[in-house]
Amino acid sequence: MNAQNKPQAFQVNSAEGRAYWGMGILWIMLATAEDTDGQYSCIEELIPRGLAAPPHIHEAADETFYIMEGEATFFVEDQPIKATAGSFVSIPRGTKHAFQIDSETARLLNTYVPAGFEYTIMATTVPAEARTLPPASLPFPDQEQANQALEQVTQQYPAAKTKFLQGFAS
After folding, report:
1. What are the start-end ranges of the E strands in 62-149?
2. For the segment 98-113, what is each residue's pLDDT rounded down to a tens digit?
């Protein structure tokens, strides 16, 4: 930020952004709260076929998705929304949602307004060794450690608070 406490313009290429492996996904941080003075975050994700996010609610952040490659089905308040390359999906804060990847893989941009949730991802994943899907042998995070990490992140970034729910159409 500059002397007037105003965020500065910046550029980051997906080949340069901090990359993480976790939950079967490649996460590339393109913009974090540090970069945007907490206004928003933007993450590029490479996700394999199958369930990508279980039902959850971001209590204090709006979330958007832009599908760059592949196909996905979003479940917003249990209503399916099919999304293909070029689709934009907006999820207002407080809205129950989940999504699955229907194609072999999907590449998408995921934003949060305000920023903060990206730190949950960074706290529960490991640095990626390549810009590829993680190896199948990479374990999922320990649930207790993940919950502790989420609690710590939400203390610093309240917009990261997320409520995870049961089942797809519960």
Report:
1. 62-69, 71-76, 79-84, 88-91, 97-113, 126-127
2. 999 999 999 999 999 9
DSSP 88: E
| Mean pLDDT, the chain, integer | 91
DSSP states of 12-55 = --TTTSEEEEETTEEEEEEE-HHHHTTS-EEEEEEEEEEEEEEE
* Helices of type H across the chain: 33-36, 117-123, 143-156
Query: How many C-beta neighbours within 10 Å does residue 30 have?
Result: 21
Please state, for a pLDDT cut of 70, what percent of the chain lies above it.
94
Phi/psi at 116 (nearest 5 deg)? Answer: 140, -40
Residues 6+ apart with CB under 8 A from 132: 26, 46
Residue 42 in tokens: 């933007």
Question: What are the phi and psi torsion angles at 28 (to 5°)?
Answer: -120, 120
Q: Decide if pLDDT at 4 tops 80.
A: no
Taking the C-alpha atoms of residue 119 and residue 137, their distance in angstroms, rounded to an integer, is: 24
For the chain, report the end-to-end CA distance as a whole number of angstroms. 44
Neighbouring-strand partners of residue 63: 91, 112
- Residues 79-83 have a mean pLDDT of 97
